[in-house]
Amino acid sequence: MKRVFGVKKDKEPPPSINDASDRITKRGDTVEDKIKKLDAELARYREQLKKTRPGPAQEAIKARAMRVLKQKRMYEGQRDMLYNQTFNLDQVAFAAEGIKDAQQTMSALKSANKELKGMMKTVKIQDIDNLQDEMMDLMDVSNEIQETLGRSYSVPDDIDEEELMGELDALEADMGMETESDGVPAYLQPDKEPNLEEELNLPPAPTGHAPVPPGRAQDEDELGLPAVPHASLRG
């Protein structure tokens, strides 16, 4: 059956905008190369015209130059047309990319909107306000507890502040008088060690040398100490 009716061929996918733009750009580059070759040929003819005298030879060179110039103008028109087509394709491609970006943006916004709606169902403004009020109440209670625990039990409540200020002024006046008289306040001066001998009226301590009777010299040994008397042995 396939031999009789044949097989249905698969359709080729249509060319994309980028493929078409690349193909047209290549054609434009080819035409641009042809124009450059014609420019080089015209420059050669121009030099020949400068060196050739007027006459049939010069007219022949002019005819060939006119033919090359016509080809150049034709190729320039084709090049401009191809470049315009490339520009149009670029504009279409830019618009298509913009639409794709818009579609992706819309998809992202829809997904985010759906997610936000689900999250807002679990969060209520009234619950937030109640939570804030409860936190403020707890902070007030905590401050009251700290103030209660920080009270001093030994300080009476009926202290006269004016009386305390008077005592403070008197203390400052005493400190000023001590500073003027001695140069250093009494409470900053070092303590003096008491002299126990003067307080108890004790006699002076012995020096370790026995008093020598008047008129008798005391013998001393080699070290300068009092000589010890030796007992004499009699037979």
TrEMBL record:
It comes from Coffea arabica. Residues 99-148 form a coiled coil. This is Vacuolar protein sorting-associated protein 60.2. Keywords: Coiled coil. Residues 203-214 have a biased composition (Pro residues). The keyword Ligase does not apply. Belongs to the SNF7 family. Residues 1-25, 180-235 are annotated as: Disordered. InterPro entries: Snf7_fam.
